[in-house]
Design a protein that fits this description.
The chain is mainly α and 241 residues long. It has two domains: 154 residues; 63 residues. It contains nine helices and two strands. A hairpin with a 2-residue loop joins strand 1 and strand 2. Helix 5 packs antiparallel against helix 6. The protein is globular.
Length: 241
């Protein structure tokens, strides 16, 4: 009977990797953590904290902030959550109950990070002063930490991406605003150069990022204006009635 090959993947971390395809740092960290399971739990645990810190720094830079190199995970988490606007629905309405619950989740995240750091310092491959003959960390604990890390990355990064749809980030990536790209592509193109098809929105993004950003800001502002007018119309009809 053939033995099934063990495969370990972190779904949220892979979404982070897909959103930053040019970042070899993120790709190396995600793949190294996955490859280390289950035979190298110490290496896996070492990359858990690293991934959380990388996620926070990536979000902060996306938001136009400059994280301090001396900040460790707890400080990075605290600074990152300032820019995530927790508890806001897609229509822009803030839900106090949702915000309160999200803040409780983040307090739980801090506990998870504390646990990750303690086990990483005691049993990680990069732990200081480890005895060469010290027993290896049980792979079950490494998997729990890896899954917890994936949950932290998912909460932070998905909240970050959800907020990025409202306004352009400081670090703009093609594909973050599909509605805007579709609007351009419906009006321009398709083009073909030397038998190579070109997508208008991507061509603008790659060749003149400033023009792309300026058009995107104007597009978002027009969307907001239209939404405000639509919300005012029912109120006007009710007043007439």
């Amino acid at each position: 009977m053939a033995v099934e090959e063990y495969t370990f993947q972190l779904s949220a971390c892979r979404e982070l990797m897909a959103s930053h395809p040019e970042s070899l740092v993120i790709r190396q960290q995600v793949e190294a953590l996955e490859d280390a399971m289950p035979d190298k739990p110490g290496i896996a645990v070492s990359f858990c904290r690293t991934l959380i810190e990388t996620t926070c720094k990536t979000i902060l830079v996306d938001r136009g902030q400059e994280p301090d190199d001396a900040w460790e995970a707890p400080k990075l988490i605290a600074e990152t959550t300032k820019f995530l606007h927790l508890g806001i629905h897609d229509d822009g309405h803030t839900d106090p109950t949702l915000r309160n619950a999200a803040e409780k989740l983040l307090r739980g995240v801090n506990s998870i990070i504390d646990g990750v750091m303690e086990i990483r310092n005691a049993h990680g491959a990069a732990a200081h002063g480890s005895d060469a003959y010290a027993p290896m960390l049980d792979a079950r604990y490494a998997e729990i930490l890896a899954r917890a890390t994936d949950a932290v990355v998912g909460l932070l990064f998905k909240t970050h991406l959800n907020g990025s749809g409202k306004a352009p980030l400081a670090r703009l990536r093609y594909g973050d605003h599909n509605d805007f790209d579709e609007w351009i592509d419906n009006d321009f193109g398709p083009f073909e150069v030397l038998e190579t098809p070109l997508v208008a929105s991507e061509a603008l993004f790659r060749t003149d990022n400033n023009a792309y950003r300026a058009a995107l800001v104007a597009f978002k502002q027009e969307q907001d204006t239209n939404q405000e007018q639509q919300e005012e119309q029912p109120d006007a009809r009710e007043a007439e009635a």
